[in-house]
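Customer ticket, subject: "Can you confirm the structure for Arf-GAP with coiled-coil, ANK repeat and PH domain-containing protein?"

Message body: Hello, I'm evaluating your service for our small team and ran a test protein. I'd like someone to confirm that this is what the system normally returns, since I don't have a reference to compare against.
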Amino acid sequence: MKVTVDFEECLKDSPRFRATLEEVEGDVTELELKLDKLVKLCIAMIDTGKAFCTANKQFMNGIRDLAQYSCKDNLVEASLTKFSDTLQEMINYHNILFDQIQRSIKTQLQTFVKEDIRKFKDAKKQFEKVSEEKENALVKNAQVQRNKQHEVEEATNILTATRKCFRHIALDYVLQINVLQSKRRAEILKSMLSFMYAHLAFFHQGYDLFSELEPNMKELGAQLDQLAVDAAKEKRDMEQKHSTIQQKDYSSDDTKLEYNVDAANGIVMEGYLFKRASNAFKTWNRRWFSIQNNQLVYQKKFKDNPTVVVEDLRLCTVKHCEDIERRFCFEVVSPTKSCMLQADSEKLRQAWIKAVQTSIATAYREKGDESEKQEKKSSASTGSLESGTETKEKLLKGESALQRVQCIPGNAACCDCGLADPRWASINLGITLCIECSGIHRSLGVHFSKVRSLTLDSWEPELLKLMCELGNDVINRIYEAKLEKVGVKKPQSGSQRQEKEAYIRAKYVERKFVEKQAASVLLPEPGTKVLPPSQEEKRHSGPEKSLLAGEQGAASQKVRSSGSGIQPSTDDSREHLASTISANSLYEAEGDKQESPVFCDSKQPSPGLRLYQAAFEKNLPHMAEALAHGAEVNWVNVEENKATPLIQAVRGGSLVTCEFLLQNGANVNIRDMKGRGPLHHATVLGHTGQVCLFLKRGANQHATDEDGKDPLSIAVEAANADIVTLLRLARMNEEMRESEGLYGQPGDEIYQDIFRDFSQMASNNPEKLNRFQQSDSQKS
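Agent reply: Thanks for trying us out. I re-ran your input and got the following:
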């Protein structure tokens, strides 16, 4: 409502003027209340809007988190990211809107109320004060008596001054009222217009923003229609699969168990197995096992780092375990430890064993292919001339082992299936094998066959010479002697693995094709003294005892003549062996005769005695044949101070013979009646190479004989510097490992290098180790 106060009426100070003032004052008071309320509502709206923006921002952050979570789904991630960006823009527009509202409503109207209305109130106070003074002057002027001229003049002057002041203040008050009435319209409308323009800009920005987003929204809507169709199809497929699986019989977990050596994720097989702990309580714990990356690993929880059971499957074997109370157990054995595992059923156990065996064969194949590539690359990039040191290193690493072993007769093809270019070997049998047959040999256990790669593994010189002393032809004449007679067909390279496995097990484990002991099986070399077969029943009688004593007496005489022991002799070459052994007579069968563990008949020596004799004679084919006939590698000759074949091999002076017995399970610490083991005898005889070999194989150098002497004291008395050096180095290395808690570790590198050099000399240049004996002979 617009109220105008006339200036003329102000001068008259009429009742109409007073009524108008009263109306105007009431209107201004109500206006002030309305404006205060509007400002408060605006402040509340702004605060609520900011709270909305905060909640909206949190919601937008939730959308972004969901987008990041859906990073594997490009459609979801891209759409949610786009939406969150749009919402962020809308939040920014909201904040701009609230800032403009605050300036247009809150700031402008508050300024109008605080400044213009305050001026009106101040003018009103002055007007009311001067009006009261005017009334008082009028009353006083009216009350003055005529006869009091002085008072009349004073009252008249006060009234005149008061009226003049009233007119001035009244006119200012009316001016303030009229200005306020005029200004309030402009201020209110200006504020509201600014408010509405802020909303107009806000909605225009939102419209433009969503207009840009609209094509993406329409595209997404079309994709959602297709997604709905696909979801319906997937639902039908899953319902059908659910129904199919529900109809199958899953009464046991091993209904369908498969392994895949070419799995994309590298996991050949996985599943739960019980594992026996290595602690004193031998507790069993269920763990998730898997075969992956040529390793056997397990874990308790999925997020746990897998615990490696076997670092390299090529170095392990797997076998059934029937000697414990729990069922379905099998054992994975590596060179450093063994792990006892239990499956939930027999099918699962067989599947795991098969998976491990297949993984071993695959690992061999992969490493073999890699080695071949490296060999071709190195051969193309290096010249033909090499220094002596390089040749020695290559020999140790096995790079020349393949060529040296394959040149032996029969070794160019696999001993069991005939596949050409075999790259694996059984070191205790002395044969070469293909990759598949080597895997089968590993499954037999190390007590039957010890498999090693001709290209990947390091080869010690004595082991390499052992391989060159036997070969596929020699071993097959022993282990396949009755093959044609029993009517069994030897598998070929293309035969099934099951056929090969059955044949190899029959050949080496059951020994079905070994010819029974016959008179022509074991013929002595020319000039070699061997007990007549008829004297075996009288091992304890005089003739045989005197014969053996005569042989050893002759050896003792040679020891005394040299001052420290017999002259170590090198092993015979393959050509000499071929010239002294008749293959036809050596492996010619005479029929199947039943034999006892000790005597095959009254005319033949027991396999143990044959092994004992052949060990002294350095005849590896005869030793292999004796083992094939069931000879105990640790057989004890009670008539010869309880000596073993290994002690006889020491007396014979052959390093390779000792290595053959050790590879076939000979105990390096069995002692004779005088308390002397192989290490004692090798020290007494001055066989440095054998001492080195026995120390490497764990011989106990602290053992004392019946005279209380250990090998070191014997070597010191004989002044054999080489053997003293080896024994003292071994003792120092042992003490060092025990003091540092490294028992069972490889030991010091210097120690290893020195023993490696002695092994090289003993195998390749034995004359260098004979300087002790030669110097003593010259002195005598």
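A couple of notes from the result: The first helix runs from residue 7 to 12. Residues 381-399, 519-602, 741-747, 771-780 have pLDDT under 50 and may be disordered. Feel free to reply with more questions.
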